[in-house]
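Onboarding guide, step 5: your first structure request.
Type a short instruction followed by the sequence, for example:

Predict the 3D structure of this protein.
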Amino acid sequence: MKTMKYLFIAALVTVFGTTAMAQDGTKADVDAVKKIISSKPVDLDKQMKDFYKKNKKNPENLAAFGRAFYEAKDTARARVYAEYALDAVKNHQYAPAFILLGDLKALSDDGGAAAQYYEMATYADPKNPDGYYKYAAVYRKLSPSSAVAKLNDLRAQRPDIAVDALAGRIYYMSNDFDKALASYDKADKNLMEERDLSDYAMAAFFKQKYQKSLDIAKFGLTKKPRHAAFNRLAFFNDTELKNYDEALMYADRLFNQSDSAKFSYYDYTYYGNALSGAKQHDKAIAMYKKALEQEDMDNKAKRAGVIKQLSEAYQQQEDYPNAIKHYEDYLKNIDKATANDVAALASMHMQHGGSLQDAEAKKAAFQKADAVYGDLAAKYENAQEYAYFMRARVNAQMDPDSKLGLAKPYYEKLIELIEPRAEKDATERARIIESYRYMIAYNFIVKEDKAQAKAYAEKLIQIDPDNEIAKQVIDATK
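The system replies with structure tokens like these:
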């Protein structure tokens, strides 16, 4: 059944409950066999012969031997000892052996055969949860509802097990986070395994239910205060909820007070976000740079996202040269820049120009903004009107007394585009009013062309009847 290659092997071989304890190899023979297997002796089969003879009527130990071979990736011997375990039982029915055989089939991508063995395990021992869960794990992508139905059979046998949590796990593994949340909501959190609490909180996080996710993570931390996943989720959720001081507390717990924590670029990025939110921009910049150094920063899309945040952190410091430098790097790392992406670069150049005192440096920054808006108009037809409007404004900044008329061609272009429209929205109305005001001032003051100024004033009064500038110009030209 090759269509069932969706098997999540790690989940399938997860063992829990009383059966797991039985197979965990607490007996001396099991421990001895594990040591022999790990030493990889040449005469392995010879050494195993005595252990088999001694335990041939002990299905528990035989299955444990098979599991030890399985974990050592010796599938052939694992199968042999699973069969020995079945032979040790009069009716040839032993759940741990069936589960091991199912795991072996799962490992070879034979999901149909794996499911059959898992189902046989549920018949051999109806109270052993492993068979139910692993059967459900096989079917989780083919039919999550059928998988969950199998888990419901377990409910009658083992009311002490959080079956709804296992159902949530199946839906979570199938990326159906809505159903995962619905199932987890029915379960008693006190009976949930750590893994399910973590997935519960993560499902809520994925659905942007940050407060819910935070509450679940905090509940998990009451049981396991050094649990990396719970500290990470508390940290992420508090960042999203803008609880930056608390987010930084959980960040410290994740990085410095969690057991077996492994860090990714995502952790450092969130750390940067929390620090930015707390106005600690220098530290945020250091974290974004740390994120870019991580091994899992393995594609341009990831890099682009972090580089953009790094640029924003510099912008918050009003360090516009670095903000612009990194934003240009961001544009190089995305597959296709949008009009908004390009417009943001132009806006940054304008902010830079506005922050400068030196006239030549200010002019150079505004010229760069103008060039980017020109590029925006050329490449994005839908953004042309916005680009003309912003070019008019940036050129007006470079020519504050309008003597050079630098903004004139762009305001004229706006009038040409907007004026013919019978219906004008608020944005269009604001832009054409600004355009008429500029043309009135330019013609009346700079060109001393009162007739032309009056013509624009009359147009302005039609769209804005209470405009005082228009009224004054009309009166002055009577």
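Each response can be followed by summary notes, for example: Residues 1-26 have pLDDT under 50 and may be disordered.
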